[in-house]
Amino acid sequence: MEEANSSLLAEFILIGIPYPPGLRTFLFVLFLLIYVLTQLGNLLILVTVWADPQLHARPMYIFLGVLSIIDMSISSIIVPRLTMNFTSGIKPIPFGGCIAQLYFYHFLGSTQCFLYTLMAYDRYLAICRPLHYPVLMTAKLSALLVAGAWVAGSIHGALQAILTFRLPYCGANQVDYFFCDIPAVLRLACADTSVNELVTFVDIGVVVASCFSLILLSYVQISRAILRIRTADGRRRAFSTCGAHVTVVTVYYMPCAFIYLRPETSSPLSEAAALFPTAITPFLNPLIYTLRNQEVKLALRRMIGGSRAKSEL
For the G-protein coupled receptors family 1 profile domain, which residue ranges apply (predicted)? Predict the structure, then answer.
């Protein structure tokens, strides 16, 4: 009975990231600005892909639109709560809210891993098998692949949330982190967490390692195909279509591997690394894809030009 009662915590308190008190206002404004720009930037990508007929029927840009939705969602479940930590007073998160935050973060994060893999496969087909690409990667197939990524991600998120919160929690309720994530929450459990740690390591390790390996294999084949292109301009255009994806994959996977695929420790480096998949990468993705993708930039110009023409009429 005592163990059952100990699991009935009503709330958790997120400690947040350590910072000098004098920087409270600056950090509040900084992360609020990051959140607003993340939403606006990804919304702009989403609207551009949807509005431009040359983009929204192509699988690559269907994937890009879905990526924007995921980035907006991840940012929304993490960054506002992080920003609140830079205001005065204690702001607890309800027990159910902590469960929801952990679930949606891992649901969306794993879906993003699968989506990056699909984007790499799409580039592989487009560059290595260009004549067969329209048949192998149709809009219908890309929609089915995206649906499969969402389903697999939801299963992964549910598994992690159920395993984490099946444990009893008692005593201290202060989570030494800026959001409810598995390693930080497990430190508060009043039970042996070795099974959870093993399953987390294996489950996340399989998702990260398998997706990253498939992406790496795709780009090995892509690099070989590009090097066989005879003209320098052709090689440059082929590399430009892949450069943005390689950049965001690197920025996303390296911090995730650092956080989850090493012995469990609590350190400022872990929190700094966690800022990348939760706040920095969703903020950077629209910039990377608009600055390094000529087709997106041209679509933006067409959309802006069309809007100006309508306003002049």
Answer: 41-289
Read out DSSP for 137-157?
A: S-HHHHHHHHHHHHHHHHHHH
Q: Where are the domains of the chain?
A: 2-312
Q: Retrieve residue 68's tokens.
A: 């924007």
- Long-range pairs for 251-254 at CB < 8 Å and ≥24 separation? 251/276, 251/280, 251/281, 251/284, 252/112, 252/116, 252/276, 252/277, 252/281, 253/113, 253/208, 253/212
**Nearest one of 18, 9, 17 to 173, comparing CA atoms:** 9
Element (H, E) at 11: strand 11-14
List, in sequence order, every residue forming a beta bridge with 175; answer none if it has no partner.
Answer: 14
In this predicted model, what pLDDT tens digit does every residue of 7-55 receive, in sequence order? 467 889 998 888 888 889 999 999 999 999 999 999 988 888 888 777 7
Number of neighbouring beta carbons within 10 Å of residue 54: 12
Pairwise CA distance, residues 222 & 174, whole Å: 48
94: which DSSP letter? E
Q: Which amino acid is at 79?
A: V
CA distance 187 to 189: 6
Sign of CA dihedral 97, 98, 99, 101: positive
Structure tokens at 198: 């093993």
Map residue 262 onto helix, strand or coil: coil
Q: What is the pLDDT of residues 236-282, one digit of tens each?
A: 766 766 777 787 888 888 888 777 766 655 566 777 888 888 999 99
111's tokens: 């879906």
Q: Which residues contact 131 (CB under 8 A, 6 or more apart)?
A: none
Q: What is the CATH number of domain 2-312?
A: 1.20.1070.10
- The whole-angstrom separation of Cα 249 and Cα 78 is 20
89: amino acid identity, one letter: G
Is the separation of the CB atoms in 58 and 78 below 8 Å? no
